[in-house]
Write a structure and sequence with these properties.
Length: 643
Amino acid sequence: MDSPRSPPPASAGGPNTAARLFEVFLRLRPSSPQSSVTESRFLATTPGHPCVYVTPPSAERNRSRAIEKFAFTRVFDEQSGQREVFEETVLPLLEDAVVRGRDGTLATLGVTGSGKTHTILGSRGVKGITQMALDVLFSSIGDRTVDPAKIDLQVLDNTEALVSSVAAFRERMQAAQDGHSSKHSTFPTPRTPDVSDITIDLPDSKSRYVILLSMYELYNDRIFDLLDESVHFPSTRRKALIFKRPSTISTWETSREQKKVVSGLRKIHARTLQEALQVLEHGQATRTVSATNSNATSSRSHAFLQIEIKRFSARHHERGSASIYIVDLAGSERARTAKTASDRLAEAGSINRSLMCLGQCLQLQTQVSENGKPAIVPWRQSKLTELLFSNSFSGAGGGGHKTSMIVTADAMGDFNATSQILRYSALAREVTVPRASSRAMSESSVSSVSDTGPEAPVESVLVPGEQRLVARLMSKLKETEMRARSMEELWKEADERRKESEERLKEVEERLKESEEQCLCLEQTVREEVADEMEERLEEMRRGMIERLDTEVEWRETYVDGKIEIMKRGIQVHEDAPPNVLQQLAELKDENERLRREVMQTRRDANNRSPSKQYKNARSAVKPLKDVLNLDAFRQLTLEGDR
Ligand SMILES: Nc1ncnc2c1ncn2[C@@H]1O[C@H](COP(=O)(O)OP(=O)(O)OP(=O)(O)O)[C@@H](O)[C@H]1O
C-alpha cells in the first residue's frame, strides 16, 4: 500500500454490495484556511476508486495509529461539483419515486463544518441537491399538475396534515410577520449548476401530479414544524409533533404497509418550481442555526425536507404517493474544539447522542455483509434513527424504502472526529500497520506506528511467517473489537433499562403523592359535609323546642286566665266571702302577675340561649307556676272560699 499521499491501485478492494442496507457516499470538501484544524491532509483518494486512506497527522502518530482504508459506494473528491453529487445520489431516488412509486431518504452525515448543508441546500449562489431535485421534478412534470379546484387535498391526505396552497401559506406568514421582528428569508435563489437537460421519463402520458412540501426539524429530540407560521410571533411557544402511524389508512396501503408520519405537519401544495423554492427558503429561515467556533452558521438541529409526489388519474382519482426525504443532519462536534457552552453545549450533547445511535445502525450493516446473517439494526434507540429508518426496516410502504447517506469530510479538518465517522459509516474497512511497528508487534503483541511515519504496506515487506502472525493478530484484534462493541451495547442497554426503571419509579412516586393528596382532599370534604349536616340538625331541634315551649306557655296562660275568670265569678256571687279568702285571692292574683312577668322574661331569655338550656330554663320557670296552679290546690282553695 502506498502512503496516503499516493494511494494504491484500483484492486485494493471496494465495498461488498451484496447485502447492503444503505448506499454510503463520501464527499470531501475543499479545505480553506478557516476550516482547517490540522496542518496537513490526513485523507487521500485515488481518482475513480471508492476508497479513502486515513493517515494520522504528525501530531497523532505518536499515539500508535495505523493507516486505515475505508470503502464507500463512491467517493467524491474535492473537485467534484454539486451536479455530479446530485446525479449519483438524489436523482436515482427521485426516479424511483416518480416512476416506481418508491420512497427514498438521503441524509448527510459529517463533522460540523464539513459541508453537509452546502451539499443539501447549497451556498453562495450555488444550488444544493434539493434545489436541483425540485428543478428536475417540476421540469419533468411540466404542465401535468392537478388543478387544485378539482380536488380537496385536505380530505385526500390521511396523515392528519394541514394542507394549503403556497398563496395561503404566504398570507399566513405575512400576517404572522406583520409588526414582529421575525426571521426573513435571506437566501437568493441560486442559478448554478444548470440541470435543465435532465428530465425523468414519466411512467404514462395520462397521469397528473401534485407536489406537497413539508419541512421539520429534530431539535433536542423533539420534532418541530419548520413551516409553522406561528413561530414568528415572539411569545409563541413551538408545539412539538408526534411521529406515528396515521389513524386512517389510504386506499392503496394495507395496515401492515402503513407508513409512520409526523402527525399534524403543515404540507404546502407547490404548483411551480418558484413556489417550491419559496417554501424551502421559509423553512431554511426558521431552522435553528447558531454560530460556533467551528462554523459561523452551524445547524443545531437535524432538518428534514419531505417532497411528496401524489399521482392522480386523468379523472382526478388518486393512484398513489411516494416521498423523498432529504435530511441535513447536524454535525457532530467536540465541545473542546467547538468551544460551545450552555444551550449550545446541551444541543451538542443531544446531537452527538443521536449521531452515535445512527453510527451504531450504520456499523451493523457492514456486519450483515460480513456474516451473511441479518443483524438487528437498533433503529428504535433514538428519535433520529426512528425518523430515518422506521419506514425502511418495518416493511412499511411495501418495504421498498431506499436510503442513501452522504458522508462529508474535510481532509484537513478534525482528524479524530472525521476518522471516527468514517469508521462507523464506511461499507468496509481495512487496517494496515506500518512496517516498523509490525516488527514491534511480533515481539510484544502491541500495535504501534513508527515515529518515522507510515511506510510501504506490510504485506509487501513481511516474510510469510510474519504475514501469518500479523494476520492472526489482526483477526484477534477484530474479534476483541467486536466483543468490546457488543459489551458496550450491553452496557448501554443496561444503562437504558436502569434509566427507564428510574423514570417508572419516579412516575409511581408521583402517582402515590397525587393519590395521597386526593385522599386528604376527600377527607376534608367529608368532614365539612358531616359538620354542615350536624349544624342543620341542631338548628332544627332548637326550632322544634322553641315551638313546643311557646305552645305550652300559651296553653298555661289560657288555663290560668280561665281559672281566674271562674274565681272572679265566684267572688261576685259570694260577696260576703270571708276576708281571709279574699286576701288569699288577692295574693294569688299578685302571684299570677309575677309569674306572667317571669314567663315573659323566660321567653326572652330562651331566644338568646341554646335550645337545651332554654328548654330547661323555661321548664324551671314554668314549674313554680305549675305547682302554684296545681289543679288540686286550686280546687282546695276554691272549696275553702266557697265554705
Ligand atoms: N464542497 C464545498 N465547496 C465549497 N464550499 C464548501 C463546500 N463544503 C462546505 N463549504 C463551505 O464550508 C462552510 C461550512 O459548510 P456547511 O455549513 O455546509 O457545514 P455543515 O457540515 O453543514 O456544518 P454544521 O454541521 O455545523 O451545520 C460553508 O461556508 C460552505 O460554503
